[in-house]
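Box 3.1 — From sequence to structure: Periplasmic protein
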Amino acid sequence: MRSAISFFVKSLLSPILLVLLFLTLPIGAATVQAAGEKKQAGQPPMRFILVHHPLCTEDCPGWVSAEGRITSDTPAQLRKMLKKIGGRKLPIVFRSEGGDVEAAYAMGRMIRKAGLETAVGGTRLKDCPADDLRCDAAITKDGTALGNAYSEGAYCFSACPLALAGGTSRVASQWALIGVHQITTVYNKVRVSYRIEYKIVNGKKKEISRKEVGRKSAGQSSSTKLGKKAGAALTAYLKEMGVSQDVIGLMMSATPDNINIVLPAEALRTGLITDMLSYNEWPGMPLCAPDAAAETVCHGHPVAQAPVAAATPVSKAPAQDVAAVTSETPPENRPMDFLLMYNGNCQDECNQWISAEGEITPETPARLQAILKTLGERKLPVVLQSYGGDMDAAFAIGRTIRAAGLETSIGRTRLPRCPTLDPRCKASMAKSGATMGEVSAGGAYCLSSCTLVLISGTPRLVGYSDIGLVRPTTAEYTKFFTYFDEMGVSSETYETMMFATSIERDKILRSQAFDLGIINGIIPYGEEPGLHFCGPDAKESLRCPGNQKAGIVPATALAN
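Predicted structure (token representation):
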């Protein structure tokens, strides 16, 4: 005999018993999002737009503008955009409050696989109103638009930095914001009803089918505690992207209702970004190739290589007197000299710094001591630009700077009425007192043994300038690392990085320079190297909070 049994029907059929049941079970579905995103009261879902600069007429690579909240559907939208651009390596420019963490992981992995760069920035489309910078009217039917990218006020918060981390190169400017906070795991409880059919033979029950027949919400709960599964996923992702695990600490240090803004120095140190944009660069610019021409529109232009003549070991070069050097001598080949510089009206507001440019020779330490002696107790920043030179002389310069408690930075000093190829021409140097001029971080460099001088500063700052390694010989190891210990720089980490390169004057990223302790600060937006100290006669003001009296440096002292 068979019988079929359910909540509604029973009948006699055969010795095999078929049991039809409706079973209701609670099921919890967990979704992971950044803390605070559950409110979702900010941006609309992220949208991707392919943008080109309005003034570009040919060879216009453009960028992908990615703005809005990251949702579970965002990776699919990104996949469509990647398919659209094909094999073109276009930067992804993010402006986002964050959102779904799992979706951010997926986006980061897609970006890394495609070999694309990322940046923090906003996009203003052509002819759009101020309250709708990416208006629909500016977007063509094929999803492209003309526009400009900007940094000021742009942001990448919450889960956005996780997507940003997917870039092969990831950049932001000093006036864009990167913020992180805790991850929230949201548990959505659902009550699901099933129709289950069993077969019973000889008293044993076996399920032969199961079909869902109903689903009803049973509430929701959330937790900001980073569980084992979520913690393992985050740790693995950061490692995969080459980002420091210290980011987890930054995330967990912020409460669910707050954002922990990651300062540029910390973003570089942890690898959330790999470089910073200078004042004249914008998000969406691709990273320069090593052989990029000076006119190429890209960020991170390679430093000009030292001339072949400079390859001669500087420790064996004959001593030269600064006064004997003419404008016919290439500036990078001249022995380093020190100029007391000023910019501005020193009866009102002006800044002063010590400009140190040229090749480091055995005579350089004495020249530095001469100018410091004329300044007395006044502590002016030393702004460096040099391909390097004599290592022992660099040690001596560094120890002098550290003993005096001076700031160091990298920058190019340009004197008025000097030709482009000789921005430090002798004709424009003041015959007495300080020389008027301008200083800029853009395109400046401190390579080889110049780095040894740079690390002596307290503090030591950098803007958009190039920093290079110096490789000691075996005979120089002991004094080389003794000097590093004196300056509080990690010689062990430096050695590891140094021997990972094959070029003596190889550049390093600012993030690497932070890791090593070569630099410990970023020159803020609106300032240039050395512009932190006012002239002795300047009136007290916001820019000049206090007057520091000092004697005027005679021209003869600057040339010795």
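Summary of the box: DSSP finds 13 helices and 28 strands in the chain.
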